[in-house]
Amino acid sequence: MADRLIIFDTTLRDGEQSPGASMTKDEKLRIARQLERLRVDVIEAGFAAASPGDFEAVKAIAEAVRESRICSLARANDRDLSRAAEALRGANAARIHTFIATSELHMEKKLRMTRDQVLEQARLAVRFARNHCDDVEFSPEDGYRSDPDFLCRVIEAVITEGAGTINIPDTVGYAIPELYGEFIADLRRRIPNSDKAIWSVHCHNDLGMAVANSLAGVKIGGARQVECTINGLGERAGNCSLEEVVMAVKTRRDHFGLEVGIDASQIVAASRLVSQTTGFVVQPNKAVVGANAFAHASGIHQDGVLKARDTYEIMRAEDVGWAANKIVLGKLSGRNAFKQRLEQLGIQLDGEAEVNEAFQRFKDLADRKAEVFDEDILALVMEEQADH
Ligand code: KIV
Ligand code: ZN
Q1: CA 71, CA 44: separation in Å to the nearest integer?
Q2: ipTM of the complex in this document
Q3: Which atom of ligand 1 lies at the shortest distance from residue 169's CA?
Q4: Which end of the chain has fewer CB within 10 Å, C or N?
Q5: pTM of the model as a whole
């Protein structure tokens, strides 16, 4: 049996931290239901102590969603942890995710705390959280830029207190795939009780490597949970994108050897919903969910795909929720793609000579127009028939 990779979606928490992406309770609830249809394992529904609105959103999602585990973020203090526990009370399966920064920079400049104080606060927070919830995740914020010796002490202590998931955030997107993977592998080797927890990756995209870093954390580091967001939504340049990481693991199962519980056919619907709700447009060339992700414009590619789809497609558009792949008719298209579109439109021309003539008219038009639509083809065929 293949190992399972847990998909932890944080669109509603870290994704919402993206400037301009703030969502109402009802919007969050709608997205949470779609994440449940997508069969996300854990939904981080928000940060219950952040505002009364976020508390209500976490509470509503905890009460409505039955199939996914619902999580709230909480700083490592009793007030935040109590608010998280209270918001999660109605959940079928709940998780409290607590965090405190462990890098020298954050401890000294932001928290103004010593290493020993941070260690003690992390330990007490996990102990407190465990008294309220049997599933507790701990994150050393800015973990990747933390001193590994200190990180080992903190992580060993929180596992002893009962943290079941240890997440290693690359909070500022500074990691490089191999280095991040080895960083996690090294921590797991050095911490005596490391196998009592599931290890998790949480990568930001400041250098455009959030997905690659997450996959390296899985492959090299042995992490079995990925934290990610729909469309890669998140602060600054965003978070690891759920659709990319999931389809990488599914498509390259030969390499990763992991199972994911995600129903990929719900991916495009989730992407559209998040985009419409936040107003963040998905770039056309975005992997998996961009409008061009399964579109073919060059004649050579179109000809190949019409003969055998896997010549230029490594995934099926239909498998991730698109109606079909797309042959874009334009100046690079060949006769084969044009002829196939005529057939799809139910147009029957009188022999090859007429097809050739229509194809010539199509090419002339395509030189003037970036994309030739079905209506254009119908018009040019009618024109040709009128001329005869
Ligand atoms: O990026 C980060 O460090 C976080 C933590 C709160 C997990 O989002
Ligand atoms: Zn984050």
Answers
A1: 4
A2: 0.99
A3: 3
A4: N
A5: 0.95
